[in-house]
């Protein structure tokens, strides 16, 4: 089946945070939304069919996970990452961010330190602070337009902070890095040496551009598997975030039992009825769609990279190796944070994620979401070009 990602879908009755919350978030309704990470594409047809079929049953009582649910996930990881996960390693969570918060709640006490690698997905800061813990930063370094980890700084920060956890964004949002095995190995060894548990958020792991390979952190060595928790979900891959279904993979039995007991305490054991069938259909029958989606996103990325290089030279694109989020280096515009935000909202009329939301190193940057039909992407980029030309005559 050939999917058409060019179709523009009206999301006005879609109850979408990306489209409906523009005024609350940016102070104006008249913006092209290119911010929060969901896609303006329909999910794969088998997923839609599975949800419709389930809806037609008309009974939406408490759910139970069938064996086929776990089989679908296990087969997906085996096929795509050669990672053999076992059925009893899974703990269900209604989302990855909730899982991160529950993990922190389970494995730390207030005041404990947690390492993050900014600029990074901003809810990382929120879940740490909301649980009364302290953020310790191990900033990424931008070398030749690409982010790399600073291992010396990490080693020093772990020594001085006695941090309990490290939140890893893999692939990295917003830098777009698909970490190489060797990079993860170095990180994992340092964490093992300092007794720091690695929480690997791999929600973007399926969205990888040609020439790159996502390596699940826990698949590298048995020691890493025992010293990590991997957060996975079909929500970015298949545009299912509103179905609130994620799977937390914990090979270490002691860690798993502790985390599972937190989820039980909060009565968060059962899947949403639609998320359950959508996940299974996506992992079983969604691969063909995903391959076409990635090719389309790659086309969008090439278009964006070329357009900025030729026509908006003041803004540099940090070319991602994965994810559908692109980090734009706007520092050459010479604007303050407030001015840059105002410029994108009031002059370009696009809603982007402000770089400062992502913490240290985010100032002067903006994140654009390219998971939309090409025509919308063109419109957004042209708006930016026009504003740059007018403003910086
Ligand atoms: C790195 C990362 N983790 C988690 C999430 C959200 O996860 P969930 O919707 O399952 O809470 C996102 C969404 O953008 C993300 O980029």
Question: What would your notes on this structure say?
Answer:
The protein has 393 residues and is an alpha/beta fold. The protein folds into two domains: 17-44 and 287-391, Aspartate Aminotransferase, domain 1 (Alpha-Beta Complex), CATH 3.90.1150.10; 59-285, 3-Layer(aba) Sandwich (Aspartate Aminotransferase, domain 2). It is 43% helix and 14% strand. The protein has 15 helices and 15 strands. The chain has helices at residues 17-20, 22-26, 45-57, 67-81, 96-107, 123-130, 151-161, 181-193, 222-226, 235-238, 253-265, 273-285, 287-311, 337-347, 374-391, and strands at residues 32-33, 90-93, 113-116, 134-137, 141-143, 146-148, 165-169, 197-201, 228-232, 246-249, 316-318, 325-329, 350-351, 353-354, 365-369. The strands form four sheets. It has a seven-stranded mixed β-sheet with strand order 2-10-9-8-7-3-4, sandwiched between helices. Helix 8 links the parallel strand 7 (165-169) and strand 8. Helix 3 runs antiparallel to helix 12 and helix 5 (96-107) crosses helix 11. The longest helix is centred in the last third of the chain and has 25 residues, at 287-311. The radius of gyration is 21 Å and the shape is globular. The termini are far apart. The site of pyridoxal-5'-phosphate has 13 residues, from helix 5.
């Amino acid at each position: 089946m050939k999917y058409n990602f060019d179709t523009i879908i009206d999301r006005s009755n879609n109850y979408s945070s990306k489209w409906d919350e523009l005024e609350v978030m940016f102070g104006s309704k008249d913006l092209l939304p290119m911010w929060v990470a969901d896609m303006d594409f329909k999910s794969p047809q088998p997923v839609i069919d599975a949800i419709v079929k389930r809806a037609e049953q008309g009974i939406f009582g408490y759910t139970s996970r069938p064996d086929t649910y776990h089989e679908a996930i296990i087969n997906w990881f085996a096929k795509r990452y050669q990672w053999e996960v076992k059925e009893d390693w899974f703990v269900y969570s209604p989302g990855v961010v909730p899982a991160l918060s529950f993990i922190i709640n389970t494995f730390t006490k207030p005041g404990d330190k947690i390492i993050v690698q900014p600029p990074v997905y901003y809810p990382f800061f929120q879940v740490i602070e909301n649980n009364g813990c302290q953020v310790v930063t191990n900033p990424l370094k931008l070398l030749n337009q690409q982010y790399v980890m600073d291992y010396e700084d990490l080693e020093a920060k772990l020594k001085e902070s006695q941090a309990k956890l490290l939140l890893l964004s893999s692939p990295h949002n917003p830098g777009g890095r698909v970490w190489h095995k060797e990079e993860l190995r170095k990180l994992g060894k340092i964490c093992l040496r300092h007794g720091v548990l690695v929480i690997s958020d791999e929600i973007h792991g399926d969205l990888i551009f040609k020439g790159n390979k996502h390596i699940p952190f826990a698949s590298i060595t048995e020691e890493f598997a025992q010293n990590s928790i991997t957060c996975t979900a079909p929500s970015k891959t298949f545009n299912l975030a509103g179905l609130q279904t994620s799977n937390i993979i914990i090979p270490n039995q002691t860690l798993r039992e502790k985390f599972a007991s937190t989820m039980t305490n909060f009565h968060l054991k059962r899947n949403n009825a639609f998320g359950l069938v959508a996940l299974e259909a996506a992992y079983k029958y969604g691969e063909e769609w995903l391959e076409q989606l990635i090719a389309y996103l790659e086309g969008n990325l090439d278009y964006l990279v070329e357009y900025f290089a030729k026509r908006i030279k003041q803004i540099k694109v940090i070319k991602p190796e994965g994810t559908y989020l692109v980090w734009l280096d706007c520092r050459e515009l010479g604007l303050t944070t407030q001015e840059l935000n105002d410029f994108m909202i009031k002059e370009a009329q696009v809603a982007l994620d402000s770089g400062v939301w992502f913490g240290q190193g985010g100032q002067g940057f903006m994140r654009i979401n390219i998971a939309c039909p090409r025509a919308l992407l063109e419109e957004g980029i042209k708006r930016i070009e026009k504003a740059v030309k007018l403003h910086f005559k």
